[in-house]
Amino acid sequence: MNGSDRAQKSMKNISYALIGQISALLISFILRMVFVRSLGKDYLGIDSLFVSIVSMLSLAELGVGSAINYSLYRPISENNVERIKSLMFFYKNIYKKIGIAIFVIGISITPIIIKSAEGNINNIGIYFILFVINSGISYFYSYKKTLVIADQHRHITIIYRYSFYFIMVLIQLIILLVWKNYFLYLVIMLIFTFLENFFMSKKADQLYPYLKEKKISPLDKNIKKEILKNTYAMSFHKIGGVVVNSTDNIVITKFLGLSVVGMYSNYLLITNSLNMIFGQIFSSIIASIGNLGVEESKERVETTFNAVFFYCFFIVSFSTVMLYILLNPFIRIWVGSSYILNNTIVIFICINFFIVQIRRGVLTFRDALGLYWFDRYKPIIESVLNIFLSVFFVQILGLSGVLIGTILSMVLTSVWIEPYILYKHAFNKKPYHYFVKLAFYSSVTFIFAAIITVLKNKILLLELNNSLIEFMIILLVSVFTYIILFVAIFFRNAYLKKILKKMKVFNVGV
Questions:
Q1: DSSP secondary-structure letter at 465?
Q2: Among 207, 208, 332, 355, which Cα is nearest to 271's?
Q3: In angstroms, rounded to a whole number, what is the distance separating the alpha carbons of residues 110 and 493?
Q4: Which residues cross the membrane (predicted)?
Q5: Residues 6+ apart with CB under 8 A from 170
Q6: 282, 315 in Cβ contact below 8 A?
Q7: Could you give the C-alpha distances from 494 to 7, 189, 303, 510, in angstroms and in order?
Q8: Which residues contact 399 (CB under 8 A, 6 or more apart)?
């Protein structure tokens, strides 16, 4: 496949992902606002806690999906239908076992969940079981989605995902407004999870009719061995990722209570929504990078990485600065002043967001090139540090302490190990230039945030007495100022010139 085809498919996947995720983001804010006003902080806390616990149950998957996804790139490139069929059959059997494992584990820990989350809410056990069923049921159908994504047609899965999601949210809104019933809210979530995966499975059968064939050759032992090796490595990444991302709410619940989880979850909804947008963007190019790695030289792959890293920096830096400037004003308008957290906590939320997202470029190439094995123990070290540091600091600094623990665990491990592995095993180089760029990009983001904060404070001195108008003025000034500052510093950058040329802002050579 030539570079033009890869770029075209990537842009199509990214476009669909952005439209879908941004639309979902908007409707999610409406749903959260209605949820808070209909059910209150305690239900919001329980909902956030259960999401974290169910995320931990997904450890049963152990990264086998990513390992098989990587194994599909070459047979898809070579149009090796028999190997694809064998891989998908192998995948199907594993995912059925994973779904059953999630049911069994989830139901077995329900008594522990009921005891640990005792409070003013009845039927906690039933609610948790619905979460478990919702998580486990998708594994019986979703494996076929992997083939569609690996074949660079992620936009199809996005259409199915958000079509069902929008209908689900509309029904949930009606339930919350009319009946204020959390049980029905969860039942609708379960039904639409099943429908989305069922119909996506049928679509995959239409796209790849050979998936329905009964004659399937056993998977080659060497390929199976490679998948198991990659799965073993990915299991560490999976465990570490889930622990780092899911234990904060558990620590907060234990030491600070459900109401704090509920308040913090509003900020998490915003940052996680952006996480999902970025996740969609970078997931949309993984298959193309995987194809690039199969067909092109190391030098071409490195050149592509440098471009991706710069574009990653732009969207992450812009988002981080806007988060810091606009988070609390938005929370005040959205759910009310009683849900606002202090500015120190907002700073740590933004730092955490920046560190997680600026690594996207490195992680995208790691996954696409199948480099899971070389840093397999890093996530375990990170997760242990995260739990230890978060528990230690939460007792001294409260919610800020939990965030500091998470930030330190990433800085001490992922921030330097991941690029070191990528450069050593993909480019045969040391990552010196990467770290210089990272330090420069981080400094630029901090300086931009400081400059725009001064402008924000001057706007606040005007005392407009209208939160919405004040918010819109701050938003427009912040965006305009950031763009001017960014172009002023990077106007000579070849990657920025290339984007501006495609946008026909001005005619420059690259």
A1: S
A2: 355
A3: 55
A4: 16-36, 48-73, 94-114, 126-143, 155-176, 182-200, 276-294, 306-327, 339-358, 434-455, 467-491
A5: none
A6: no
A7: 18, 46, 12, 6
A8: 252, 256, 260, 264, 341, 345
Q: What's the CA angle centered on 193, arms 191 and 196, to 5 degrees?
A: 105
pTM confidence score: 0.77
Instruction: Name the DSSP class of 194.
Output: H
Angle at 146 between CA 145 and CA 148, to 5 degrees: 65
In a domain, 248, yes or no: no
Say whether 78 sits in a helix, a strand or coil.
coil
C-alpha–C-alpha distance, residues 14 and 32, integer Å: 26
Tell me how many domains the chain contains. Answer: 1
pLDDT values of the chain reduced to their tens digit, one per residue, 510 residues: 555 677 777 788 888 888 887 888 889 888 988 998 899 878 888 887 888 788 777 766 666 777 778 888 889 888 999 999 999 999 898 889 888 988 999 999 988 887 766 666 788 899 999 999 998 888 887 788 889 988 888 889 989 999 999 999 999 999 999 999 999 999 999 999 999 999 999 999 999 999 989 889 888 888 888 888 888 887 787 777 777 777 787 888 888 887 888 888 889 888 988 888 888 888 888 888 888 887 778 888 899 999 999 999 999 999 999 999 999 999 988 888 888 999 999 999 999 999 999 999 999 998 888 887 888 889 889 999 999 999 999 999 999 999 999 999 999 999 999 999 999 999 999 999 999 999 999 999 999 999 999 999 998 888 777 888 999 999 999 999 999 999 999 988 888 887 777 655 434 333
Of all helices (H) and strands (E), which one includes residue 225? helix 221-256
Query: What type of residue is 483?
Result: I
Nearest to 299 by CA among 139, 140, 483, 428: 428
What's at 293, amino acid-wise?
Answer: G
Whole-number Å distance between alpha carbons of 283 and 293: 16
Q: What residues have CB less than 8 Å from 465, skipping those under 6 apart?
A: none
Q: Are 276 and 21 in contact (CB under 8 A)?
A: yes
- SS3 helix, strand, coil % of the chain, rounded to 5? 85, 0, 15
Q: Which two tokens stand for residue 290?
A: 């995987």
In the block, residue with structure tokens 């560490």: 236
Is 57 domain-assigned?
Answer: yes
Give the number of other Cβ atoms within 10 Å of residue 455's Cβ.
15
Q: How many CA atoms lie within 13 A of 246 on its CB side?
A: 18
Q: Does residue 82 fall inside a structural domain? A: yes
- Give the distance, in angstroms, between the CA of residue 417 and the centroid of all CA atoms in the same chain: 20
Determine the structural domain holding residue 46 and report its residue range: 1-221
Residue 413, Cα to own-chain centre: how many angstroms? 19
Our CA angle for 57, 69, 230, nearest 5°, is: 70
Residue 137 included in any domain: yes
End-to-end Cα separation, the chain, in angstroms: 24
* Total Cβ atoms within 10 A of residue 502: 9
